[in-house]
Amino acid sequence: MAHVLSENAVLYYNAGTYAAPTWTEITNCKDVTLGLEGSEVDVSTRAGNGWTESVQGLLTASIDFNMLWDRGSTDGAFIAISAAFFAKTSVEMLVLDGPYDATDGDSQGLRAICMVATFNRNETLGEALTVDVSLKPIKNTSAAPTWWTQP
Q: Which among 20, 47, 84, 127 would be 20 to 30 A from 148, CA to CA?
């Protein structure tokens, strides 16, 4: 069984277009969580002999992480994410368990165009300012969220 260390996972945003992506690593992040959940659909019938029966329905995703607050930033990722939040626009994300250009061809994760749902600044006394970010896929008819595997 191969294991993957979390410090080898990589979070990217697309600085290009969907058709010709320019994946840019977000290095100003920590404690990334890729939340994936399937909804439950009740398909119970009398044939179930008194048992509730379910199937998996729609999938839900969220990308949650925190970044150092970077006032007057030259950090492209911080700029892209904060701009998307305040302008109510989207940012395309790629959340992988390894590098995008991995030579072993094994990296995989979620590719999705997202809204910035949460952009909470934390001002804990004695600590650096940070921002908690939560991203969620948006409706996009030409680019639905996909489970991406290294080509």
A: 84
